[in-house]
# Entry
Amino acid sequence: MVAAITSLFLCLAVQRFRLRAVAQYDGRRFHGVQKNVRTQDGAPLRTVLLTLEQALWPALGRQVKIGVAGRTDAGVSAEGQVIIFDADTLDGEAACVSVDGSAVRVPDLAGALNAHLPADLQLKRVDVVPSRFDVVRCGTHDFAAFQSSGGDQRSTTRTVYRCVVEPRCGELVGGSGEAEVAYDVVVEGDGFLYRMVRIIAGTLLMVGMGFAPAETVLTALAADAGSDGGRCGGGGGGGHCPKAEMRMRGIVGPVLPPEGLCLEHIEYDREHSSVSGARRREL
# Structure
C-alpha cells in the first residue's frame, strides 16, 4: 500500500517530456503513412498517422502532435517505424503518463496504448528522449528539392547522417525585453548541394512557425516526388511538379542568409584516405 501511494504521488508531479515509440504495422490495409484523402469525394483514407491520432488522442486526453520518422507508401509494412510525441510525464524510473485517466509508467506505456490501437498497428516499446529529439528524416535521399539553381553537381543524391534542432547554450536573443532562446540546425552529411543546408534550415523554420505543414520535409524527400511526384501548392494551384521546382513554388525553403551558416568540422573515415570518405557537419 505504501509503494502504491508513493508511485501515485510521484506521478502527480507533472512535466512535459518527449516520448519515442517504435511501431510495427501491416501495410496491406493502410494507404501509406501521411494523412491523405480519396480523390473522388475527399473522404479521409486510412493511413498510419490518422490511425495513430484517432487512437492516441482520446487515450492521452489531448491532441498531441505526432511525428513519424519514415514515409512508407500504400501497402508497405514496417517493423521499426519511429514516432515521437509529447506527453505529461515525470522523468526518472517512476515516469508516468495519464492513459484514460490512469497513471501508466513509461515502460508499460506501449501495452496500455496498444489496447486502443488496431491489431495491424502496434507499439513495440516507448521511452523518454531529450526534448530536442526530432525525427527529421536522415539517410540517403535525392535532395533536389533542397538545391538552389546554379549548382554544378551531377548527382543530387546525398547522405545525411544527422539533422537536429538544438538550443544554443547560454545565448539569448531578442530586443523585446524578454529572453528568447536561440537555436541551431545541425546537419551532418557526406556532402551538400548548393545552398542545401540553408534551404533545409529555412524549411524547418517555416514548419516551426506554422507556415508549412509538418510533413513538408517528407514530401520533398519522397521517392515519388521526381518528374511527376511532388504535389505543387501555393501559386502552382495543385497538380504535381518536379522536385527542382518545389522551392520556386514556395513548398520548401526559403534560403536563409549565409551569415548564419558555419562549417564546424570535417571528419574523415579512418579506413579510407580519400576525400570521398569525409563526413561534414554544418550549423
User: Anything to note?
Assistant: The two ends are 52 Å apart (CA to CA). The longest strand covers residues 157-173.
